[in-house]
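Backbones bend. Shown next:

***
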Amino acid sequence: MENFKLVLMEKEKDTGFLYKEREVYSINTNLVENIYVVDEDGKEVVHLIVTTDKNVSDWEFSAIFDYYDVDVFQEINVSVKEIHDKYNPAWEIKFEFIDCREEMENLLNKILDIHKKELDSVYEQIKDKEEEYK
């Protein structure tokens, strides 16, 4: 499996500008659209935007959201929100920043592994459902 480098940037809450590199992590999948950390009420909160590994058709877009179960993330302390205003399905996963690079990298890879497994399951479930969504 190919590894990718993921750069976590600090984002200014008021302006939205990315202004400082926080850390670089090695991840095992390319499903990340965006990642940044923001100070929210004195807590450093990571915003991880994950997406699909391919461009999807209109019917697949709807079906993926219908079949993707965000509850698969219950075992870890994160919040997940669907993002419908992007070209492909995406999800924002929020969690507290971990100051230990190794622990943070492990959490990121766990999140991405869960996402990849769920996405693969969804692809399998919807492969014959095109007519239902047209």
Remarks:
- Helices lie at 58-67, 101-126, 130-133.
